[in-house]
């Protein structure tokens, strides 16, 4: 993620900072109180651009609070959350029942906060002049493992008789989980001609470097690289802010931050950072390419967070 943050996202983060300078607020800095301490965050690479943009600005108002943001995927983040290594866990999918059970066994109470919406984006190479849109059934047929090497002509006989190269987030990624559940209906993903990576930069590079490539990742990562990639309409709908917010885009999904209740109650820095996140997530999400929630949803989340302090 480092190269993505410093290269592809630099302009977006700059926009986020400008927005924040004009109107961001919240947390202890609102009353002039300066805090110190550490906040440990890990999880989804999809949520990371929002977290990093917020952290850039938060560091300016609370310079003595050290926030570390790891990017080991939603599943990897939950593993650290369960092990008690983190205060917050970013996720691009809801927590699984088995993860809830593990947290309960570890004696860790948590609260789920929705922070933005995303539209998982399916992309192909810019030189691909045959794919404009696919149905969910087309995607399923293309990505399902059937023991054969997949060719474009398997989906449409008018498409090239060329082998497809696949690029997918790794199995620790919530994006992988979402695709596995929503598109593949929890059946096995294709195993031939595929590269999996938790680093979205690797996926972008792979798709841009091969005319026969196809991949998928979060909407913000597509927007940051849209000059190099071609997005595929799904069931006739292109991912946009409007179609993601309305849910008309078939691969729309929520993004989450999971907070350890104990940290919210006993770690003032962690509570303040989470409060700041909820108060500014809408602006930051839009600035880095995602879709904000409705204002009342953030207000309700802040009330929930405040209740954890009592």
From TrEMBL:
Residues of the PBP domain: 33-278
Protein name: Phosphate-binding protein
Signal peptide start-end: 1-26
Gene3D superfamilies in the record: Periplasmic binding protein-like II (3.40.190.10)
Classification via InterPro entries: PBP_domain, Phos-bd, Phosphate_ABC_transporter
Membrane topology category: Lipid-anchor
Assembly, per entry: The complex is composed of two ATP-binding proteins (PstB), two transmembrane proteins (PstC and PstA) and a solute-binding protein (PstS).
Any matching Pfam family: PBP_like_2
Cell compartments where the protein resides: Cell membrane
Keywords: Cell membrane, Lipoprotein, Membrane, Palmitate, Phosphate transport, Signal, Transport
Homology family: Belongs to the PstS family.
Entry function: Involved in the system for phosphate transport across the cytoplasmic membrane. Part of the ABC transporter complex PstSACB involved in phosphate import.
